[in-house]
Amino acid sequence: MLDRLVRILDAFDAQNPTLTVNALSRRADVPRATTYRLLENMVGHGLLARDADGQVRLGLRLWELANRSASTLDLRQAALPFMEDINQLVGQNTQLAVLHEDDVLVIERLSRPGSVVNQANVAGRMPVHLTSMGMALLAYSPAGVLEGYLQRHGERMLGQHPKLRHELAEIRRTGYATFDGFIDPESTGAAAPILDSRGYALAVLAVVVPRDSGLLPSAVMALQTAARGISRALGPAAD
């Protein structure tokens, strides 16, 4: 039963924020009768909501429960003042993300009018191998995490990054990662890791700037300074 509940919740994504019951049943691979029965209970508990036209969406209760997560709450609270400074300084969207279930999970984003196109959305997932955020997180992961990820996704990673280990070593040497046009040809992503006392990435702070805009050096400096500040603000909670 729990597996079916999770599949129903997982059926929603950025491209499908609302679904009909039939589509929900199909995407979750749960029989329609069972979907109807579970839907009534989940709506009753606020985990799902039903629109006036019968479409189903995730409920606010999920947002409420997720925001009680102590580790995420502490991280967001520590990071937000620094993110606001970067957002003002660089004039581009700024985001905070973690490595979760082999994806980059965005947990906060500050938008900016007139900013370059940015595919990162709060609670959205992005591929590790196509983002500066993912590469910075991977470069500063414990050896076991890195090797496990490569066992599961090595073919895809090496197809995009034939000199992967050299790239990761260079990210560790410089303290940041940048990608030009991997997701959007007009943009460059830059990311700096937020480290615990052992030197492993708790999260990553990132911006997306227009390609060839001249903003990258100042953005990287601001990210690295802010990432160190967030690590200090987290203190013992970072370990």
UniProtKB/TrEMBL annotation:
The keyword DNA-binding applies. Residues 61-236 form the IclR-ED domain. Pfam families: HTH_IclR (PF09339), IclR_C (PF01614). Signal peptide: none annotated. Keywords: DNA-binding, Transcription, Transcription regulation. GO terms for biological process: negative regulation of DNA-templated transcription. The keyword Protein transport does not apply. Gene3D superfamilies: 3.30.450.40, Winged helix-like DNA-binding domain superfamily/Winged helix DNA-binding domain (1.10.10.10). InterPro entries: GAF-like_dom_sf, HTH_MetabolicPath_Reg, Tscrpt_reg_IclR_C, Tscrpt_reg_IclR_N, WH-like_DNA-bd_sf, WH_DNA-bd_sf. GO terms for molecular function: DNA binding; DNA-binding transcription factor activity. Residues 1-60 form the HTH iclR-type domain. PANTHER family: HELIX-TURN-HELIX TRANSCRIPTIONAL REGULATOR, ICLR FAMILY, HTH-TYPE TRANSCRIPTIONAL REPRESSOR ALLR. This is IclR family transcriptional regulator.
